[in-house]
Amino acid sequence: MNDMIHIHPADNVAVALKPIPAGTQFEGVTAKADIPQGHKMALTDLAENDQVVKYGFPIGHAVQPIAAGEWVHTHNMKTNLSGQLEYGYHPKINPPAPQAPGTFQGYRRKNGQVGIRNEIWIIPTVGCVNDVAKALVRENQDLVTGTVEGLYTFPHPFGCSQTGADHAQTRKLLAALTRHPNAGAVLVLSLGCENLTHEQFLEELGPYDEDRVKFLTCQQVEDELEAGREILTQLAAYAGQFRREPIPASELVVGMKCGGSDGLSGITANPTVGRFSDLLVAQGGSTVLTEVPEMFGAEGFLMDRCINEEVFHKAVNMINGFKEYFLRHNEVVYENPSPGNKAGGITTLEDKSCGCVQKGGSAPIMDVIGYGDQVVTKGLNMLYGPGNDLVSSTALTAAGAHLILFTTGRGTPFGAPAPTMKLATNTPLAQKKANWIDFNAGVVADGVRTLDEAAQDLMALVLEVASGKKTRAEEKGFREISIFKDGVVL
Fold first, then answer.
1. Measured between alpha carbons, how far is 409 from 430 in angstroms, rounded to an integer?
2. DSSP letter at 218?
3. In whole angstroms, what is the distance from residue 262 CA to residue 326 CA?
4. Are 346 and 262 in contact (CB under 8 A)?
């Protein structure tokens, strides 16, 4: 196994697969300094303003001369990016060859949808009732029996003192969670005087099964815990009717997310997820790629894969719309990598984005959907949402993702409402945080598995999780939401 990797023939940097001491040789180049794991070493001499190329794509430029063998990072290179761009559509559509779908044991709902969990969810419409919702969960765990797999609530601070787009986004997101098929039954919990009125929520929710979704307004009852217990008992009886049955993988929707990236994210975990995505799409299933700011600088990998010009224009509007959002708030569009990203070897947003979009594989992009919208088109979809882990994972759940594949080079314990599988980019992380990590993609860097083999392993694990195997976050009861906001709080 090599200690470094030269990802693309056009690259003028290599990436350390493990810490490299000064004096190490790779492709005839001697490291002039220690190179941390995930970081870059120059393979050729670079003059000031020369392009630094990784993944076959410029990820920035040298700000001073860099000799072959030197460490390449924030001290000697910077981004090339600034402002909005104009894009042209040059379609390169390569759909994966169809495959017979695998199967998992899921729950067929009465409306024809499929869930991979059979839980009762309590959805607060306003932050004022968060503690009531928590008390209802705490005091009614005896209802988790038979095929009812859990009782959960998702506190948030919104639903009141919001206006315009923020109020609409909160309403839309909470209604989308209410419709999620992993919830066998749902209690929508209100206070009674909030901006998000019962009538507004009903209008946003649309047609619903009155046995599956019930409502409680705390100000209208004498004892909300007693009234809540009565409703939850009814909902548990309803949800308890469902049984797992064989479901084709073509009905799966899988969200794809990365957080706490490092220099191996785009080499191990993200391309493993990308190849998994292509496998699931080939079997007729659906995947969802989000984190729009982490597409900046790598849009070229995505735009030409849009299935038609209409989808291409939706993608352009999504990318430039998010840039406008940054600029409206006087934020620098391309100053994105976090301190943890940089410590892990990511230098510029192009560097991060080129690794991030590897999760999208090579399948055509079939649709671009808005925040709070749900997947309606089979295949690979793009979703409007930020890079923030909790906000984007909540949006993926609301889009209908049955589960989320979350790649990480730094580690994170959180879970979304949908089962959230953590994929480590490197073996030391997988070993150190075995209580967080569900899948070790570091075996690719170790030379133990190829990307294709790792993707097949991941597919097998996804079908197990879809059939009921709990993720590490689920085992600990780690589940939360965060709602995207932009405007004022009244």
1. 9
2. G
3. 24
4. yes
CA 440/CA 430 separation, integer angstroms: 6
Residue 74 is predicted with a pLDDT of: 93
Smallest Cα–Cα separation from 273: which of 407, 88, 442?
Answer: 407
What residues have CB less than 8 Å from 75, skipping those under 6 apart?
none
Cβ atoms of residues 266 and 358 within 8 Å: yes
Report whether 109 contacts 376 (CB < 8 A). no
Q: Give Rg (Cα) of the chain.
A: 23
- Sign, Cα dihedral of 441, 478, 208, 367: negative
Distance CA 390, CA 15 (A): 29
- Cα(122)–Cα(130) distance, integer angstroms: 10
Kindly state which CATH superfamily the domain 119-241 is placed in: Sugar-phosphate isomerase, RpiB/LacA/LacB (3.40.1400.10)
Show the tokens assigned to 51: 């392009």
> What's the token pair of residue 206?
């649309």
Give the distance, in angstroms, between the CA of residue 406 and the centroid of all CA atoms in the same chain.
Answer: 6
Which of 381, 387, 385 has the alpha carbon at shortest distance from 368? 381
Residue with tokens 């965060």: 482
Which residues are within 8 A (CB) of 281 and not within 5 positions of it... i.e. 6 or more apart? 95, 96, 287, 361, 363, 378, 379, 380
Instruction: Compute the average pLDDT of residues 59-70.
Output: 96
Is residue 293 within 8 Å of 389, Cβ to Cβ?
Answer: no
Alpha-carbon span 271 to 279, nearest angstrom: 12
**Whole-structure pTM value:** 0.92
4 contacts: CB under 8 Å, gap ≥ 6: 14, 15, 16, 17, 20, 24, 26, 35, 41
**CATH architecture, range 4-78:** Roll (2.30)
What does DSSP assign to residue 143? G
Whether pLDDT at 99 is above 70:
yes
Indicate whether 133 pLDDT > 70: yes
H helices present in 69-163, as ranges: 130-139
Which of 92, 27, 40, 84 is closest to 66 using CA atoms?
40
With the CA atoms of 361, 393, 84 and 63 taken in that order, what torsion angle do they form, in degrees rounded to the nearest 10? Answer: -80
Structure tokens at 68: 């072959």
The one-character DSSP state at 97 is: P
pLDDT at 84: 62
Question: For residues 228 and 210, what is the distance between their CA atoms, to the nearest angstrom?
Answer: 16
Q: Is the pLDDT of residue 327 over 90?
A: no
Residue 476 phi/psi, 5-degree rounding, is -95, -5
Closest CA to 54 of 35, 79, 34: 79
Q: State the DSSP string of 372-410.
A: T----SSEEEEE---S-HHHHHHHHHHTT-SEEEEEESS
Give yes or no for residue 465 having a pLDDT over 70. Answer: yes
The sign of the CA dihedral 122, 126, 127, 131 is: negative
Q: Which residue blocks in 283-387 are alpha helix, DSSP H?
A: 300-303, 309-328, 339-343, 349-356
